[in-house]
Amino acid sequence: MINYLIVILEYNSASFCCYNINTNNRNELISLKLLKRIADFAVKNSISINFLYGDTILPPEYEQIITTVEHVKIMPLKHNRSYENAVFIIDADNDLQHLNKLENSDLNNVILRVGKDNLKSLSAIVKQLIGKFKRLNIILQDIDNYEKSYFTIYESQLEDIRVLIEKEYQNGNFIEINVVSDRIFLTNMNNCNAGIEHLTIAPNGKYYLCPAFYYENEDNNIGDLEDKFEIKNSQLLELEYAPICRNCDAYHCKRCIYLNDKLTSEINTPSHQQCTLAHLERNISRKFLENISADFNMKDEITPIPEIDYLDPFEIINNRSLNAENREKHFTELLSKPLENVPIKQLLWQIYKINPKVLTQLKNLNYSAINLQNKK
Amino acid sequence: MKKNFAKQPSVWQESIAKTVTLIVTEDCQLRCHYCYLVGKNSKNKMSFDIAKQSIDYIIENRDLFPEKSIIWDFIGGEPFLEIDLIDQVCEYIKTKLRAEEHPWLDSYRFSFTTNGILYDNEKVQKYINKNKSNLSIGITIDGTPEKHDLHRVYPSGKGSYNDTAKNIPLWLKQFPVGNTKVTVASADLPYIRESVLHLFSIDIKHISINVVFENVWVEGDDVIFEKQLVELADRIIDEELYADHTCSFFSETIGHPIVDNNNWCGAGKMLAIDCKGNFYPCHRFTPFSLVQKKAIPIGNCFDGIDNNKLRPFLSLDLSTQSSRECINCKVATGCAWCQGANYDSADNNTIYQRATYLCKMHKARVRANNYYWHKLNRIITS
What percentage of chain B's residues is helix, strand, coil (to nearest 5)? Predict the structure, then answer.
């Protein structure tokens, strides 16, 4: 079910994810008429909007329409107008000199995009940013060109970031850095879900699966705001239809369908790069969880993230010495069992939210830990 | 009545060997109506340099090709149009395997599927005699002259039956368990019974036969198909042909519910190489085999295999590409699909959408197959 729209306000809106924008001096601002239609559509369908800003300071009538809907503003850090509660994008290749624009705050939500040339400086940049955010989303660019040496650099940078974040936790500053901390809070897949939870509308009024597909080729559109959108073979967006991902517990992985399409030609199939990076992050999260459990004397209460013997699940799926049954067994034995990690109170609350009657029925059941009926 | 029935000859090192398909030419003397090679031309032929580059890559990268055996499969178009190149390539393969002390030297085959027209050509015969112990050749003959010439025609429209059939005795003399591959489309359904019996009568004992995967079937085809197969079943059993002949339409393994989640098709496990040295997961993904879609190359002989492009093929399973109806079908086993045909007819650019044009035809086959085994088993066990 679509919960929110991403609306690209101008062609040169800042990229907030792994895709790049062709800077071709194109200066196409969404029309006021289209913006009004989108806002009206969002209100009537009870969905929120993430507005992607570029460098342009929008005319007041645009801002007026934006305020009429539930929304989040996502904008480049160097944008000349300051907005409260905006999500700021820092492009490590271009914006490091603007970091002082970001005030010290434990509220900020920041996106840090890092190209492969700056990968070796990643932890140093994060260190500079500590104190300026509540949540930091690190987005790696160029991963289609990642080779083994980049995985090694990333692993060592993640290790340094883990040390940084652990220190903050010890000081009571419970910040979030997606690639280290997200996995420890998750009990099920929590991916980008483009095409399932959100769609993108570009300045041309067309629907796209996500902004990356628009910038890749405008002909990738899946419909028009005037009509309905249509995603052909949309089941392939679902986890059940992703043979590599459905046997995986790197729950925080983006499962980026754009990169899947670009690198493997199938939206349901992740590349070696995507799987390896997600598992390096999973392994660091595992260490992070283990350490903070000890720091906070919570080892008995927290289910650890299991240790696994691969970085790319495809290695197991494609292992010729394992038959289908043994492959399944390998995953079943090693991976997290989703419900094990859910506190019982939370589980009951979730059941209540789905159907309150189920809880009533459960309460009315007579059961005991030991059945002595046969002993009588 | 005879109490034993023959079994299909096993394929050499089936599911153990790596199959590398070399598309040595995109040309063919024929223009068969049902042929999936829609872009036949006389321009694209493989050069020795491209073949050598490809062979070097495959033989030198043992970690990427760990299979214990290899089948070098030569196809076209018509492969024997390029017999000089094939001879040169095969000699090079043997030399290279020897130089590399590769285990495949003791476990390789050269394989051909041919229209048979050039089979008695002097150069082809010289090649066969030189490589006979490591060779498998299948000649495609579709059945009676009437059925064969319905589709297997020259560009002029003239049928090719006589030019193929004249070489069958020589072929069977050299390869006594010769297996032919027969393809059936809508128009030739009424000829199935007589065609299979005709092929048996010219001493071809094992017939691999299938209906085309594409969307060619019309209302009522399944009825004709079932009737033909039931009549064929009666003739095979009544004339006791089952004792030493097989026809793949009848198999004990078809018509049951699915018990595993495996992909039917082997695309991606094999490697096809076109005339320019581009690699494909199977020859059905080459540009000249696709009508609606762009080709899916997975690398080339210069840069090697792009493993990311192979991942969708090697992780593909039954449940991710099939409808609920297909997964739960009570007669699902033996219902075949071709990944290339699926891709070509899919609603978008995906290999994960199974075409089901064959559904009614498969069910008709299952009914006839049940009839065949019911009748045969009663005879064998009586």
Answer: 40, 15, 45
Query: Could you tell me the pLDDT band of residue A232, with boundaries at 50, 70 and 90?
Result: very high
Interface contact A272-B307, CB threshold 8 A: yes
Chain length of chain B: 382
Antiparallel, parallel or unpaired: β A87-91 and A71-76: parallel
Measured distance CA(B342)–CA(B356) in Å, rounded = 9
- The total of other beta-carbon atoms located within 10 Å of residue A129's CB is 19
Q: What is the pTM of this model?
A: 0.91
B278, B272 Cβ separation under 8 angstroms: no
Q: What is residue A98's DSSP assignment?
A: G
Distance from the Cα of A156 to chain B's closest Cα (Å) equals: 25
User: Distance between CA atoms of A314 and A327, rounded to whole angstroms?
Assistant: 10
Q: What is the pLDDT of residue A371?
A: 46
C-alpha closest to that of B52 among B103, B122, B99: B99
CB contact under 8 A, A268 and B352: yes
> What is residue A139's three-state secondary structure?
strand
Distance, in Å, from the CA atom of B375 to the CA atom of B382, rounded to the nearest integer, reads 11
Closest among A5, A7, A54, A12 to A32, alpha carbons compared = A7
Q: For A257-298, what is each residue's pLDDT tens digit? A: 999 999 999 999 999 999 999 999 999 999 999 999 999 888
A232/B347 Cβ within 8 A: yes
Farthest CA pair distance, chain B: 63
Fill in the DSSP letter of residue A15. P
Instruction: Decide if A264 and B312 are in contact by the 8 Å CB cutoff.
Output: yes
CA terminus-to-terminus distance, chain A: 54
> Residue A241, CB half-sphere, CA atoms under 13 Å: how many?
19
Cross-chain CB nearest to A264 (options B311, B317, B347): B311
Neighbours of B195 (CB within 10 A): 25
Q: For residue B236, with 0-12 CB atoms within 10 Å meaning exposed, 13-18 middle and 19 or more buried, which class applies? A: buried
* Range list of β-strands (E), A58-129: 71-76, 87-91, 109-114
Task: Work out the minimum CA distance from A266 to partner chain B, whole angstroms.
Answer: 6
Tokens of A271: 């590349």
For residue B319, the distance in angstroms to the closest alpha carbon of chain A comes to 8
Cα A249 to chain centroid distance, Å, stands at 14
HSE-up (13 A, CA, CB side) for residue A21: 18
Q: Which of A269, A273, A316 to mutate to test the interface with B (most CBs of B within 10 A)?
A: A269
> Has residue A129 got a pLDDT over 60?
yes
Burial class for A4, CB neighbours closer than 10 Å (0-12, 13-18, 19+)? middle
Nearest CA in chain B to A267: B350
C-alpha–C-alpha distance, residues A317 and A314, integer Å: 5
Classify burial at A363, counting beta carbons within 10 Å of its beta carbon; exposed 0-12, middle 13-18, buried 19 or more. exposed
Stretch 315-344 of chain A: residues touching chain B, C-beta under 8 Å: 317-318, 320, 324
Closest of B29, B21, B39 to residue B294, by C-alpha: B39
B362 contacts: CB under 8 Å, gap ≥ 6 = B331, B334, B335, B336
B377 and A CB contact within 8 Å: no
At B181-240, the pLDDT tens digits run 899 999 999 999 999 999 999 999 999 999 999 999 999 999 999 999 999 999 999 999
Optimal mutation site among B15, B264, B309, B311, interface A, most CBs of chain A within 10 A:
B311
B272 to chain A nearest CA, in Å?
18
The pLDDT tens digits for B359-373 are: 999 999 999 999 999
Rounded to whole angstroms, the Cα distance separating B90 from B85 reads 9
User: Quick check: A196 and A183 in contact, CB under 8 A?
Assistant: no
SS3 assignment, position A344? helix
